[in-house]
Design a protein that fits this description.
This protein is mainly alpha-helical. Helix content is 79%, strand content 0%. The chain contains four helices and no strands. The mean pLDDT is 86.
């Protein structure tokens, strides 16, 4: 998508700037300008003079920022995503926690029975 936007932006800005006496005069200049604009480097050596060229520049700038954000997010999620081993360990840990919870509930009910028995025994004495 980035490459497509760079080529389309290059062609459009070359058409918009053609014959205006600006500094984007050939396909090489337009391609260089589109790449530096899309990557948000913007050296300033090539820039559009026309209103249409500036609109194209704004679109490429926002697209570059958006695509950079998408790529950055993808790379970040790749680094922080749990591995298969970590997922397996987490699943086993959850099973162990559930088992312990059931055992504790069982112990609670037995403790209540014992306390109830002791109270009855105490009342009888």
């Amino acid at each position: 998508m980035t490459v497509l936007l760079i080529f389309i932006g290059s062609i459009l800005v070359l058409q918009a700037e053609k014959g205006l006496g600006g500094n984007i005069n050939n396909a090489g200049d337009a391609l260089w300008w589109a790449i530096t604009t899309m990557t948000t480097v913007g050296y300033g050596d090539k820039y559009p003079f026309s209103f249409e060229g500036r609109i194209i520049a704004a679109i490429l700038m926002f697209a570059g920022i958006g695509l950079f954000g998408v790529v950055s997010g993808f790379v970040a999620s790749w680094f922080i995503a749990p591995s298969k081993e970590e997922k397996k360990e987490s699943s086993e840990l959850q099973k162990n926690v559930n088992t312990l919870q059931l055992k504790m509930e069982s112990l609670d009910s037995k403790m209540e029975e014992i306390i109830g028995y002791l109270k009855v025994k105490e009342d009888l004495e």
